[in-house]
Amino acid sequence: MSTSPLPAVAFLKIPDDGDPYLEGSRCGSCGATFLGQRDICSKCGARAQMATVQLANRGELYSYCIVHRSFPGIDVPYVSAIVDLDGGGTVKGNLIGVEPDPAKIDFGMPVEVVYDDALGRKDRDGNAYLAYFFKPLT
Amino acid sequence: MADAYIIGVDMIKFGRFPDRTVPQIGSEAALLALDDCGLTIQDMQALYCGNLGQASGMVGQRILQEIGQTGVPVVNVSNACATGATAFREAWTAVKADLYDLVLAVGVEQMGRGLLGGGGGGSGISKEGLLGSGTMPSVFAEAGMEHTRQHGTTFEQFAKVSVKNHHHATMNAKAMYQIETPLEMVMNAEMISYPNTKLMCSVNVDGSAAAVIASEKKARELGLMDRAVKVRASVLTSDPWQERDLVMPDVNTCTRKAAAAAYDMAGLGPEDVNLIELHDCFATAEILHYENLGLCKDGEAGRLIDDGEVQLGGRVPVNVSGGLLSKGHPLGATGIANIYEVSTHLRGEAGKRQVEGARIGLTHVIGLGSACGIHILEKAA
To answer: What is the ipTM of this complex?
Structure first.
C-alpha cells in the first residue's frame, strides 16, 4: 500500500516537491491540446510532435448536467461539469461549492481546479487516491 | 451503379424477453422480413447481422442455425447504437457492388435494465460521480445543455419532445409503450440527469428488425417493385476531430457531416423529406438533430417543437413510430427498426400514424464513440 495518495487518473500528476496539476499534450504542428500523454495528433496526424504541457488550474464552465440517479453508493445530486481550461484543454469533473440547481449555475462561470481526496474511495489494496474538482472562482 | 431496393422489411413488437436467446429474437424478425417479400432464407446470398451485447458470439451464424444453415457469408457487425444501420449499410454496399442480388440484414438486441455507461474501466477506483458522470443520460444531458448555452433552449422544450414521441407511440402497436405522457408528467417524472427526466430517457427493451435488400434487376425479376423502397442514400461517418470530442462526445459534427453527404448522394435537401426517424436516445438529443439534419436553422429547434412542426400532421413529422423514447431502444436493432418505420410510411401501410403522401424519408442513428448512420429512402416509382 502506498503511503501517499495515488492519482485518480493518469493525467493528474503529483510531483514529489510541488502542487498537483493536470497534464496534457500539445501538438507542435497544429496546436491541438489533449489530456494526458500521447505521441500522435488525432487532429492533424502529426507524429513525434507532441509536447507535454502543464494545464492551467483555471478555466470556465462550458456545459454541465445535474446527476440525480447514479449507481449504488454514489452520492446524488451532484454537478457533472465540462470545463474549458485557460490556454487549452477540456476536462470533465464534479463541480463543487455550488448548489445543484440550474438557476445557480451560469455557463461560462470562471472556475478553478482544486485537488482533494477522492471522496474516500480506495482500491482493493486500500490505497487512497487524489482527485481533481472544479470550484467557482469568487 | 444500379440502385438497391428494400423488398422485405419488418420488426417484432419490442418488449422484454428474458426467456429467449438473442438468436431466437433475431430469427423472428428475419422470418418476418422474408415473409414480407415472400422469399426464404435459401434465397439469401449473404447475412449481415448487427448486435452489441454478444458482439463476439457469432449471432448471425446462430440465427442461421435457427432458421436455415445455407453456408452463405455471414458478417457480424458491432458499432454501438449505429450497429443496425451499419449492418444494413454493409448489406446495401454488397448489393451496390454487384456481389449479390439478395441479402438479409438483421439487427437484434437483448438489453439489461438500468443506466448505460459510466462503468469506467481501467484500474484503481471508480470515476463515476468522482470526475463527473459518464452515464448516457448525463452525457446527453450535457450535450443538451450545450444547446441551452448556445440558444437558450428550455427544460420544457426538451420535455415536449417526449410528450410528442409518446403520443406517436399510442398509434404504433409494435412500440414498447402506448401511453400518453402529458407535459407535466414528463417534467415531474424522476429526474435522472437534469434536464433529462426518466420519461426523457429511451427505454431499454429487447427487440429485432430485419430487411431484405435486392438489386433492381432482381426486384423487377421477382415482380416486387410495387412495395419496394429505393435506398437513395446510405452514409456512415465517425467523429471528426473536435476540440472537446474526447471529453464531451460530439454527436453534432458527425451527424452534420453524414447529413450533408446523404443529401448530396440522394440529390435532394431537407426540404424534400416527408418524415424522419432520428436518434432520440434522450429527449435532449432529438432537439440537437433538428438542426443537425437541416430541418431548421441553428437556434430554431426549440421553436420547431413549440410550433408542432415535427409532430404527426406537421411540416416534417419526426419519430412517428414513438422513437427510442417510447417504441424502445434495443441498441443493435434500432437502426433497422427505423428503416422499417420509414419504409412502412412510404408504402402507405402505417395505419393511424401514416404520414400522408410520404414519398421521401430519412433515418438517423448515432452510436456514441462515435458513429453516425443516415439513410434516405424513397418509394419505388
So the answer is: 0.96
